[in-house]
């Protein structure tokens, strides 16, 4: 299909003799919200890093909007990444952080976008404070603003809920739902199945570097937990 | 052009963060002064020995200080994994290298300018015309140090024994440039502006150009996974 | 090097013969040099070892560049094994040089351009090996080493140029083609052949070993993965 946003063709990733991913085949259409589940070490993060163009597949290929993100800058410009690491600089203020990334993406209306983004995550008042004084929740909000500043059409989410309290979780959830309705393609890795169940419309489970389960999803949180349980190993 | 825009954005970001915390600048400056002090006692310097050993002492101080700074130059990017964000930004990744390299160059020059009066004081050097050409040698030499140093710092930042390996990598590789730095500084200090000095400056320029262009090509491979 | 490979059977015998011939040529066939005497015979090992070392360094460069292009493990193995042998032959140069220098220059070591350059180059490749050994975790080692292998090779001419500049007045190295009698030249050629064959033999054996190491590591990983179930 030509209108698939993300195409992974036989992608493998080795770290020396350790095989993290084995010939993954995956197509994700525009606007899908994919939940990527799997036990620790199943290769979820590695797959996400391949999609982000940070890591290159040992064999096979990854195409974002028809282009290899490793080689084509335009393909990279359409991807955003929100991870449990903030990817921000603690010695810069919120405003400086966003302005820096606006420059990095050569955004035309930088000042205005930064303004809007701060507004959206409710950090306008703290805009000139350095991140060292920010709480985990504030940082994650700013990280979200950073990840969506260039209005990506593909958003990658790597454990975005880690370290957030319930209030912050709900806010993030709300924001992701908005993005979903705006036809943004999302791929989320998370252990918080509770939150994910309401967002995801497709479930992909990885195990030992292979895709071992792939289905369209529209069930309840409990159903999701039950579906994933056999792949995630014994309950802790 | 967006390559330069991104290079300058990274340079600016690094300089702002550095100026705010001074967590690299102040240890580097103090360390280079300490090296001057240590050499003074190890060699019984001053007076006659100046032209013989002075330039070597000065550049040893700069190299050691730069090692200190370089080993921390990717620490900010590691702290919150922001290097990932830099790598995801569109455009040639060489801009990341160049921005970081220029940042290191500016910090190093800053240290050198601070060090120079103390060097002059400790080694009884009276100020004069030589200061201007000396600054030229500093710029070229520091360009060499940061050109090679930034590439190796990027590489070693992902290694297990990074603090240990950076000097092992940088010191032998930087030797050709270091030789010319010391020689050129010696010639300037003894007021000999001849063809020999010119050859050494040329050597430094060639070294810097070779390492910057190599690094621009190879940086992508040094940081990807 | 496969055991069924005809090269595998012939090469050791060939190398052994060539080395015997080289010894004979250097010590018996070649005439004694008029000024330096028997000391000069070191040169039959010193010079070929130096050239062989540089061939190794070139192979490191080749393996590194090809690895970055193709990402095939065999190029990385070539780079690693060549670097080890380059350091080995470099060591022969650095030991035989001073042995020759003591009777001729009166001291073991002089900061003479060629010797200094060789020492710096040697240090660069020792650093390369150290990074491979201790620095990188297994997944990233080949990639980082490849970058280093390319930079190191590009640095070699800079080292030579700069050291020449530094010690232009110290140039004491015997220059090329000065008064070599024909017999001396033949002996030198024989020594070159012996060194190149030795390099080929050692390199092929070392590559075999590297392949075996990788196979063992792969088996170990598979066993570990099985144990997880």
Write up this protein.
The complex is a heterotrimer of chains A (236), B (225) and C (229). Chain A is of the alpha/beta class and 236 residues long. Chain A contains 8 helices and 9 strands. In chain A, the strands form 2 sheets. Chain A has a 6-stranded mixed sheet with strand order 5-6-7-3-8-9, sandwiched between helices. A 3-stranded antiparallel sheet of chain A has the order 2-1-4, with helices on one face. The N and C termini of chain A lie far apart (41 Å). The model of chain A has no long low-confidence stretch (mean pLDDT 87). Chain B is an all-alpha fold and 225 residues long. Helix content of chain B is 82%, strand content 0%. Chain B is built from 9 helices and no strands. The longest helix of chain B has 29 residues, at 94-122. Chain C is an all-alpha fold. Helix content of chain C is 79%, strand content 0%. Chain C contains 6 helices and no strands. Chain C is globular, with a radius of gyration of 20 Å. Chains in contact: A-B, A-C, B-C. The interface between B and C is medium-sized, with 34 and 30 residues.
**Quaternary assembly:** heterotrimer
End-to-end Cα distance of chain B, whole Å, is 28 Å
Give the ordered list of helices and strands of chain A.
EEEHEHEHHHEHEHEEH
The SS-based structural class of chain B is mainly alpha
Main sheet record of chain A = 6 strands, mixed
Helix content bin of chain A: 25-40%
Shape of chain B, please?
A: globular
Largest interface, counted by CB within 8 Å of the partner chain's CB: B-C, 34 and 30 residues
Number of helices of chain B: 9
> Mind telling me the C-alpha Rg of chain A?
18 Å
Roughly how much helix do the residues of chain B carry, as a percent range?
A: over 70%
In round numbers, the mean pLDDT of chain B is 89
Q: Count of DSSP E strands of chain A?
A: 9
């Amino acid at each position: 299909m030509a209108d698939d946003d993300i195409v992974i063709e036989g992608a493998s990733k080795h770290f020396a003799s350790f095989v993290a991913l084995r010939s993954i085949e995956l197509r994700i259409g525009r606007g899908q919200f994919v939940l990527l589940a799997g036990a620790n070490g199943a290769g979820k993060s590695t797959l996400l890093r391949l999609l982000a163009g940070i890591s290159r597949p040992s064999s096979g290929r990854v195409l974002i909007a028809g282009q290899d993100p490793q080689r084509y800058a335009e393909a990279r410009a359409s991807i955003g990444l929100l991870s449990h690491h903030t990817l921000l600089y603690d010695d810069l203020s919120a405003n400086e952080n966003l302005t820096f990334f606006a420059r990095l993406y050569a955004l035309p209306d930088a000042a205005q976008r930064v303004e809007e983004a701060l507004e959206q995550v409710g950090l306008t008042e703290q805009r000139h404070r350095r991140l060292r004084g920010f709480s985990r929740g504030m940082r994650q909000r700013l990280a979200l603003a950073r990840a969506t500043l260039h209005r990506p059409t593909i958003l990658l989410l790597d454990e975005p809920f880690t370290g957030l309290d319930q209030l912050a979780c709900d806010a993030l959830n709300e924001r992701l739902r908005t993005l979903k309705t705006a036809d943004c393609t999302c791929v989320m890795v998370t252990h918080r199945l509770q939150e994910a169940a309401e967002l995801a419309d497709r479930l992909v489970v990885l195990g030992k570097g292979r895709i071992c389960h792939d289905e369209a999803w529209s069930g309840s949180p409990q159903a999701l937990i039950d579906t994933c349980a056999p792949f995630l190993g014994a309950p802790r | 052009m967006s390559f330069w825009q991104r290079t300058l954005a990274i340079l600016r970001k690094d300089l702002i963060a550095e100026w705010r915390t001074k967590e690299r600048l102040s240890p580097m400056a103090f360390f280079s002064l300490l090296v001057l002090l240590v050499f003074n006692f190890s060699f019984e310097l001053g007076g006659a020995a100046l032209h013989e050993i002075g330039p070597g002492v000065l550049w040893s101080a700069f190299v050691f200080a730069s090692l200190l700074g370089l080993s921390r130059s990717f620490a900010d990017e590691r702290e919150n994994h922001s290097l990932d964000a830099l790598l995801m930004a569109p455009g040639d990744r060489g801009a990341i290298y160049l921005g970081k390299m220029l940042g290191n160059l500016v910090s190093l020059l800053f240290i050198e300018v601070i060090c120079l009066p103390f060097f002059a004081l400790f080694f009884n050097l009276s100020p004069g015309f030589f200061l201007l050409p000396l600054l030229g040698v500093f710029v070229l030499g520091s360009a060499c140090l940061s050109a090679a140093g930034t590439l190796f710092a990027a590489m070693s930042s992902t290694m297990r024994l990074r603090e240990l390996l950076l000097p092992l990598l940088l010191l032998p590789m930087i030797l050709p440039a270091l030789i010319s730095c010391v020689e050129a500084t010696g010639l300037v200090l003894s007021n000999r502006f001849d063809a020999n000095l010119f050859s050494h400056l040329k050597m430094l320029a060639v070294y810097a150009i070779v390492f910057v262009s190599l690094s621009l090509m190879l940086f992508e491979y040094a940081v990807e996974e | 090097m496969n055991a069924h490979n005809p090269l595998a059977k012939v090469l050791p015998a060939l190398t052994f013969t060539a080395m015997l011939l080289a010894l004979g040529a250097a010590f018996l066939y070649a005439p004694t040099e008029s000024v330096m005497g028997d000391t000069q015979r070191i040169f039959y090992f010193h010079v070929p070892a130096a050239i062989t070392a540089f061939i190794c360094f070139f192979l490191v460069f080749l393996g590194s560049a090809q690895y970055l292009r193709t990402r095939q493990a065999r190029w990385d193995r070539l780079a690693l094994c060549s670097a080890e042998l380059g350091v080995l032959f470099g060591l022969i140069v650095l030991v035989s040089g001073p042995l020759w220098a003591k009777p001729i220059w009166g001291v073991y070591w002089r900061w003479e351009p060629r010797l200094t350059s060789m020492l710096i180059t040697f240090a660069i490749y020792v650093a390369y090996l150290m990074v491979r050994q201790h620095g990188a975790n297994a997944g990233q080692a080949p990639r980082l080493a490849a970058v280093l292998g390319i930079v190191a090779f590009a640095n070699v001419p800079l080292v030579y140029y700069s050291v020449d500049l530094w010690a232009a007045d110290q140039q004491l190295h015997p220059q090329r083609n000065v008064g070599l009698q024909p017999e001396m030249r033949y002996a030198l050629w024989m020594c070159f052949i012996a060194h190149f064959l030795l390099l080929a033999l050692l390199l092929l054996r070392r590559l075999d070993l590297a392949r075996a190491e990788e196979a063992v590591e792969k088996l170990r990983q598979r066993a570990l993965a099985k144990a997880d179930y």
